[in-house]
Structure formats: C-alpha cells, structure tokens
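#help-structures

NK: newbie question. if I give both the sequence and a SMILES, will the prediction place the ligand too? trying with pyridoxal-5'-phosphate
OV: yes, paste both and it writes out the complex. here, I ran yours:
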Amino acid sequence: MENLRIPGPTPCPTSVLEAMGRQMINHRGPEFGQMLNDITAKLKQLFQTQHDVFLLTGSGTGGLEAAIVNTLSPGDKVLSVSIGVFGDRFASIAQQFGAEVVPLKVDWGKAADPNAVRQALQADPNIKAVLMTHNETSTGVTNDLAALSSAVKEFDKLLLVDAISSLGSIDLPVDEWHCDITVTGSQKGWMVPPGLAMVSVSPEAWQAHSEANMPRFYWDFARAKNYLERGQTPWTPVISIVFALSVSLDMLLKEGLPSIFARHARVAQAVRDGVKSLGLSLFADEKHASNTVSAIAGSNGLDINKMRKILREEYQIVLAGGQQQLDGKIFRIGHLGWVTEDDIKAVMSALKVVLPQAGFGSVS
Ligand SMILES: Cc1ncc(COP(=O)(O)O)c(C=O)c1O
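OV: that's the protein plus ligand as structure tokens.
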C-alpha cells in the first residue's frame, strides 16, 4: 500500500472503505433519511455549530461556489483575502458570477493580517462580504481565523470561509468565530473519498440568501433545507460516500475533538522538526505553519520532481508538488485525517536517503 502523503485525497481506514461496498438504498426512503439526520447532527458537533449544515454532492470547489451564489448578487462588492492558490480560486468564482472583487493580496507563505483587513473594510464601506481561507493548502499556512473574523465582524460583514483542508482537523468553532458559511470537503481530514462538500449556514447567511440573486439551482441552500426536513437531499446524493462518512464520523467523535486537534498538532510538529533536521526549511512562515499540510522549500540543488519520483517508485511514498508558480519550487507533505507519527517517520527515513540522490547538498 502507498503511503499517500498528499493534502487530499487522504488514506481511508478499512472500515470506511468497506462501508462503500454496501448495496444501494432508496435515497428517498426511511433508512437514508435516518442516516442523513444522524450524519447532520454529528457534523454539527464537528463544525461546533448550532446552525444549519448541509451535505452537497460535489467537490470542495462546488461548496465554494454554493457559498457565493447563495449569499451574493451580481455587482456586490466582496473583499478577497487570498493567501494562495485556493484563495484566488474563491475570488475567481465570485468574479465569474458577477461580484466585484476587491483583492487583498498577501505574499504566498504568509498569513493574512487582521489590521490589513480592517483597513480594507474601512476604506470601502460598500463591501458586503469577505472571502477567506482558513488553511491555505497550496502554501501550508493557517490563518488566524479568530482574529480575522473579529476584524470582519467589527464592520458587520458576511464572512465566507474555505475550511476545506482544516475543518475536522484543526480547531474551528464555527459559531464562536462567526463564520457565516463554512465549507469543507470529504477527501480531507474526514478520511473519506472525494465526492461530498459539507457546508454550514448561519442565520446572517440566510438573511443574505433571501436577498441574493446570483443564478443558482443545484446549489440552492433553500432546496437543501427544504429536503433535509424530510430526511432527503434535493438531488440524488453520492450514497456510497455518505455510507463512508457515516462510519468515519463515528471514528472521529470517538476520538473526540481535543484529541484529533492534538494529534494533528503533534504529527505536524514531527514533520516540521523532521524536515529541519534534514537541512530543509519550511516555505511557510513558521508562526502560521499548518497542522494539516507542510510546504517545504526546495534548496541546495534539490530537484523536487526527481525526489518525488524516487520516493514514489522506490518507497511507495507519494508527496505533493507545488501549484502554479510554486511548481518545482516547493513540495508538500499532507498530514491530515488518518495519520500518525509512524507514517511521518517512514517519510523522514526515506527522505534522508533520497534527498542526496535528488541533488540536495550539491549547491550551497
Ligand atoms: C483550501 C482548499 N480549497 C479548495 C480546494 C478545492 O477542493 P476540491 O478539489 O475538492 O474541489 C482544496 C482542495 O485541495 C483546498 O485544499
């Protein structure tokens, strides 16, 4: 079996995979209804919210699109606080649907500054909503969402959060931090294959929904709510993944949120200590280094693609490369979901041998 250490899809426990081998059931029947209600209640615990949570069949990007089209109208101004590839994607979706995007750019590898958000909101009172990434998977940075949210809420703006690679792995109390829409995806810390986006919706987001008129059909939260009241989803759901999620949620709740967060913090620290002890350095500002994905800078003659190829072919260890302008410049180790220190030890032992084979140390 491969040691799949990319930041999603993540490896799935055997019991989760086995759940997907079940025969289909009627998605408009009582068994599915009971399962959906049970999953929704458990997700609320993991999102730390009292408000609505919906399962949407689609990938994380679908959830981001849902956040936009359910709360905004063409011409609405949004502040995009982007710290990497996925922050830019969130802004592109808003732009595509006709929002006027005001960018607040942050150097890749750094976290967003709450004071810069304050200034941007002060400078433009017409901004209606703020788009924010909790954990930027492309750079390995976790924003201080509590502080950023406080800045946003001083101005009483809607806060739409991409928490795709953090929720369920890094603490994110959705209600306490006033996140109006929070989006995550099944293939990340949830230990489930890709196929489901999960979103929370606050009362303020519902208020925005009632006025928003961007085109929406498949993603309409009103339809999702209406059907959930009957234990259904509006459209045929990805039933096998729902079976899988039902098993993984029980595992997550059994471990408990504090233990999950502590395990991710411990494993992430082992990654950071490990790469530094090999002479590598983090790409991300260490004060904001993510507990689910580490981005490591290429240096000293390291050929990242060669290193990844040797790791994959000879050690069955799969690491991620950099995206867009970071291609060939960084590599990333995913450590979210079903992961322990032993998985990381295997990566570090292999890296120790492979780094010099891939040119590391040939140039100082
Ligand atoms: C932070 C973040 N946002 C958005 C996405 C896009 O999710 P998907 O590929 O499931 O559409 C990802 C996936 O890697 C992500 O990590």
